Amino acid sequence: MFLEVQHIIKSFGAEKVVKDLSFSLKAKQTLSILGKSGCGKTTMLKTIGGLLSPDSGKILLDGEDITETRPEKRNIVYLYQEDLLFPHLNAYENIAFGLRLKKIPEGLIKEKVGHMLHSLELEGQAEKMPNQLSGGQRQRVSFGRAISTNPSLLLLDEPFGSLDTGTRQRMQELFKKLTAEYDITSLFVTHDLKEAVLMGDQIGFMQNGLLTVYSDKKDFIQDPQTGVQNEIEFWGGLR
Ligand SMILES: Nc1ncnc2c1ncn2[C@@H]1O[C@H](COP(=O)(O)OP(=O)(O)OP(=O)(O)O)[C@@H](O)[C@H]1O
């Protein structure tokens, strides 16, 4: 398995927020994680990304134990809803930022950013500053910046939460396309049931710091805890 999370526990004071978290994920797959506010999703992502240290447990990425590795050395990108672009850099430079840090030659940066802008359907927006872009366009630039450096793992924390329904739907389609094109392995946290089903190759449900990963989408749909059955009954009741 590409990502292996083994018995992670994380507490804040007396509050045990992540309880014995264990799961694994194959390369190039997306695990979507659904859960109510406060159940520990962000804490889980931050622990995997290295922004928080677990009390105990292990994290292996591509066979390497990264539990103690500093966040900037993990090759993991954490992307969240309010993720800010650099306000003084235009769309092109925001995407190029990580590549410049890696000292990639200018010609190659031009090629990679050009390709990314095309994939993100942002041609013609390259020169715009963040405050001249729409919310959905800014989100796409953030996304481009996150994946342009080919991270081993992408952690997405409710990335489309602030977008209107139509834009959100287009971002979901674009995300699917880009994860396939850039061979991305990701954890996708969302409050949205439909989004969880659409985005995940696998689905997990988190409740009170405990994560259940379903081997099959059908099991997820049938489990009364996940809320899918309520949803089906609601829509069925309107017929
Ligand atoms: N730095 C911290 N110090 C103390 N408690 C914290 C800290 N960060 C999170 N918590 C607590 O841990 C619990 C889980 O928070 P977390 O942010 O992981 O939830 P979440 O599932 O991501 O929620 P949401 O969907 O609302 O973002 C909450 O009770 C929160 O108050």
What's the β-strand tally?
10
Distance between the termini: 44 Å
Instruction: Give the CATH H-level superfamily of the largest domain.
Output: P-loop containing nucleotide triphosphate hydrolases
* Secondary-structure element pattern, one letter each: EEEHEEEHHHEHEHEEHH
Q: Structural class, from helix and strand content? A: alpha/beta
Count of structural domains: 2
Percent strand equals: 25-35%
Strand order of the largest sheet: 6-7-8-3-9-10
Task: Please report the number of helical segments.
Answer: 8
Mean pLDDT: 91
Backbone shape: globular
Q: In angstroms, what is the radius of gyration?
A: 18 Å
Say what the CATH topology of the largest domain is.
Rossmann fold
CATH class of the largest domain: Alpha Beta
Keywords: ATP-binding, Cell membrane, Ion transport, Iron, Iron transport, Membrane, Nucleotide-binding, Transport
Organism: Zobellia uliginosa
Pfam family, one: ABC_tran
Domain ABC transporter: 3-233
